[in-house]
Each structure stands twice: as structure tokens, then as C-alpha cells.
Design a protein that fits this description.
- It is a single chain.
- By secondary structure, this protein is α+β, with helices and mostly antiparallel strands.
- It folds into 2 domains: 49 residues, no CATH class; 106 residues, no CATH class.
- It contains 5 helices and 5 strands; from the N terminus they run H-E-E-E-E-E-H-H-H-H.
- Strand 1 and strand 2 form a beta hairpin.
- It is flat.
Length: 175
């Protein structure tokens, strides 16, 4: 179990998410994807929105690591590792329905939304109160995405944890 966590963390450290940023603009960031840490990607030219400008050349940008997503990914990987240790430790009393539901909910919050490169569902949770109080176009993804992914991931996580506990119990009883 610990080996899987170390492997996940190792891959995350060796292949981080890279971004390019404009030299003179603080707000512009473009994802360049996952690349080996010792070989950063080259910046790319992007379409320009200034009057008279067609393309901003690659020389206008510099490449940097996306540290914000790195910390989120490491935190979520650690949460999932802790859950696995809690579920499969010897003498675990995880067979109760409410305990399985709590573990499944925790797992659902730690799993990524299928967008680039890593965005856990749990990051939408703090935005729900603001989205409910001010339901404008900026909060549609939170209002629709959080309940959908939480329910789907929660149900799949519950079934997966239930099957894993059943298999673990069956294997221990057989030995």
C-alpha cells in the first residue's frame, strides 16, 4: 500500500505540470501539460488579442511549474493513502454502513474531476455556499459539477470499498 503511494508521489514529482507565463502580464497562464522535471517544455506562440497583433511569439513567454496543483495533488494522494491504510489495517471495524459511507465520501472528495491536469472534487465544496447565494453564470460549473461528480464518485467509491472490504474479509477467513 505504501509502495503505491510512494510510486504515485514519485511520478508526480518527476512529471509535474508545466505552464507558460507572459513576461509582462501577471494574469496570463497557459497549461503545457506534464513533462519530465529535468526537461521543461519550450514555450509556444499563442494567438494575440491586442489590436494589430496576430500571434504572440514564444519568446514573449517563460516556462514555470504549476505549484498550486502540485500541492493539491500531493494532499489528495496522501488522503487516499491514509484511507487505504485505515480500510485495510488488521482488526478494522469498517464493515458498518456509515463508516463505509464516510470513507466513500472522503474518497469522492479526493478524486480528480476529468479536466487538465488535476483538480479534486473537494475543491468545489468551499465554493458551494457562494454559488447557492449568488447563482450567476460564474457558478454554474460548481452548482452542476460538484453534486454530479460527488454523487457519481461517491457511489462508485462506496461499491469499490465495499467490494475491497468483502474480498479482504474473505481472504482472511480463508487463510
Amino acid at each position: 500500500m505504501l509502495g503505491v503511494w510512494v510510486l504515485w508521489i514519485g511520478v508526480s514529482v518527476l512529471f509535474p505540470n508545466w505552464q507558460q507565463a507572459a513576461e509582462r502580464e501577471l494574469d496570463y497562464r497557459k497549461d503545457l501539460g506534464l513533462h519530465f522535471v529535468l526537461r521543461p517544455p519550450a514555450p509556444v506562440a499563442v494567438p494575440c488579442y491586442f489590436v494589430g497583433c496576430i500571434t504572440a511569439p514564444a519568446s514573449y513567454f517563460h516556462v514555470l511549474l504549476d505549484r498550486k496543483l502540485r500541492y493539491q495533488e500531493l494532499a489528495c494522494a496522501t488522503v487516499l493513502m491514509i484511507l487505504a491504510v485505515v480500510i485495510f489495517r488488521r482488526g478494522s471495524s469498517i464493515r458498518r454502513h456509515w463508516t463505509l459511507a464516510a470513507v466513500a465520501a472522503w474518497m469522492a472528495l479526493s478524486l480528480p474531476v476529468p479536466i487538465s491536469p488535476y483538480f479534486p472534487v473537494g475543491l468545489w465544496a468551499p465554493a458551494m455556499p457562494a454559488a447557492l447565494l449568488h447563482p450567476d453564470h460564474d457558478h454554474v460549473s460548481v452548482l452542476l459539477g460538484f453534486p454530479f461528480f460527488f454523487v457519481v464518485y461517491g457511489a462508485v467509491s462506496y461499491v469499490a470499498v465495499r467490494l475491497a472490504v468483502w474480498a479482504n474479509t474473505s481472504l482472511r477467513a480463508g487463510s
